[in-house]
Specification:
Blueprint (H helix, E strand, L loop, with lengths): L20 E7 L6 H12 L3 H14 L1 E8 H17 L5 E6 L2
Antiparallel strand pairs: 1-2, 1-3
Amino acid sequence: MTELVTRPATKVRPAAEWPRLHKVILLNDDYTPRGFVVTVLRAEFHMSEDQAHRVMITAHTRGACVVAVYTRDVAEAKATRGTDAGRSKGYPLLFTTEPEE
């Protein structure tokens, strides 16, 4: 007597996609002190003094600057905390997010 061995059907799983990344953008304003912007960039985005200064100057001269790129939840949280840090001191400091292309 021969025994028939059957294998379970192979399941095809769709390829996992990487989460879409979002840019955190620093918008320039004419009221927030430059030193305060550098402090926020260093604290929230763990930048060196030199990196933070370059990002701040770029935002100042061009009107906006991409600070970093993260997954959506992380980007939104960091943008909110950066903006809240400015608001807590009475400054109109603003970070926004947008999907990376």
